[in-house]
Specification:
Length: about 400
Amino acid sequence: MKPEVLQQLATEFGSPLYVYDAEKIAFQYNRLQNAFSKVERFKVHYAVKALSNVSVLKYLKSLGSGLDTVSLQEVQLGLHAGVAPNDIIYTPNGVSMEEIEEVAQLGVQINIDNLSILEQFGTKHPNIPVCIRINPHVMAGGNANISVGHIDSKFGISIHQLPHILRIIENTKMHINGIHMHTGSDILDVEVFLYAAEILFETAKNFTALDFIDFGSGFKVPYKKGDIETNVEEFGRKLTKRFLTFEKEYGRPLTLAFEPGKFLVSEAGYFLAKVNVVKQTTSTVFAGIDSGFNHLIRPMLYGSQHHIENISNPKGKERYYSVVGYICETDTFASNRRITEIHEGDILCFRNAGAYCFSMASNYNSRLKPAEVLWKDGKGHLIRERETFDDILKNQVMIEV
Ligand SMILES: *Cc1c(COP(=O)(O)O)cnc(C)c1O
């Protein structure tokens, strides 16, 4: 999006502000669809946890997307946005049997990732079809916290426990209609992904009545200059070829499914914050903004680098700044970053603010969460109001003391 447009939105809706570009979301969605256009039954389930605003969910539904959810509440958000239950897959980790049953009652596709629940669920509900999340133990993921396929990972049922899975199915007569893997965010390499896919194909042969194979996500998007991104087109060509061969071997039509979050919304998002103070110390120039890791935690949590530009002075001379937040502990967005000259009152724009940004925001320091705007058809639509002090007090109970 153009700096002038973003600047205008910051004036209209105030700061800090999240802005999402609908056109970019559609572009990414269509890119993925096109990469797999030769697969007759191809389905994208957008991973709600990346950005869960109901207007964004509704928009993705209008593009043809289903949803991937990890909690009862995400399922409820999806249903509220008008997504059909059978277009939602539920892939929780470590949740109670009760929650899984509640989601199953809603008609949503269940995906089970541990043997204990698989056995309990199969015994009680042998007629509800279930997908199984396999851990193929392929090491992937850009950060130890988002890499979920390694040997000690808590995610999925280990491929080495396949005999145990098959025994449970035989004993309970439960119906397995899908198998799934999700080895982590930010998989760099198409070949690594294809290797994991091979393991999933091998596994699939043990199940006689599958309707779909879900390859999770892991698409890497560029955050800073020089970052590698997943070559989706090459990946599409290679996996399509392999999938069609497997489908023939398997002897039943299969749906190829993915559940990207980041890939669909990361680059569509812009976070706008105003510079409150420029502070020169002996060694550093700090730009302190009207936000902090309560609104955008990825740099502090994962060491992520979000590109930052000064949209109030895009043509200015570049200088080095450390961009910091107002939270009362270390709260650094960027250290010694080259940014065009910053004046107090300028609006800084953080790129890649669509995925895992607002959805991870909190009220720490009793701060209000920002507003969200969807930029669509040349117009900014408010899709979440800025919080007020009432939201901070909501649910608090002041007792007599
Ligand atoms: C988080 C998650 C995703 C989405 O991952 P991205 O890296 O955002 O694409 C997909 N599937 C499952 C099961 C997840 O937990």
